[in-house]
Amino acid sequence: MPVYDYKCNDHGLFHDLASMNEAALPCACPQCGKLSARVIMIPPEVLAMSPARRQAIAKNEKAVHQPIISSVDSREDLAQRRAHAAAKKGCGCSDNAHPDRSSLRQQAIYLPDGSKVFPSQRPWMISH
User: Fold this and answer.
1) Angstrom distance (rounded) from CA 74 to CA 76
2) pLDDT in tens, 66-103
3) pTM of this structure
4) What pLDDT score was predicted for residue 78?
5) How far apart are CA 118 and CA 57, in angstroms?
6) Is 107 helix (H, G, I), strand (E, B) or coil?
7) 8, 48, 54, 88 — which has fewest CB within 10 A?
8) Do residues 90 and 97 touch, judged by C-beta distance below 8 A?
């Protein structure tokens, strides 16, 4: 069972074990027995953070599920990256353009019984 933090108005913070089903329910203070609400402790570095940065992080968290919006700048950047990749094609710096790469690719050979084998540089590799 997880340990949750609760705050009594008279005696301050205390910790108690509770099941996840009972996490939202108040807990009795061990000193006075009054029901106390659960509190969520905030790390001190969050409290010391500038309000602008805290707001930016909150905005990013809210937008994490939203799609990336296309803009003129992002489309221009993508076009430049594609043009750069096309210009580099065949120069040998790209993995796909490496001249010896095609010789490493090997085809499966199907045997008469329906099984297949891969004559390759990796004889230990098992096919499925």
Assistant:
1) 5
2) 666 778 888 888 888 888 888 776 655 544 444 444 44
3) 0.36
4) 83
5) 50
6) coil
7) 48
8) yes
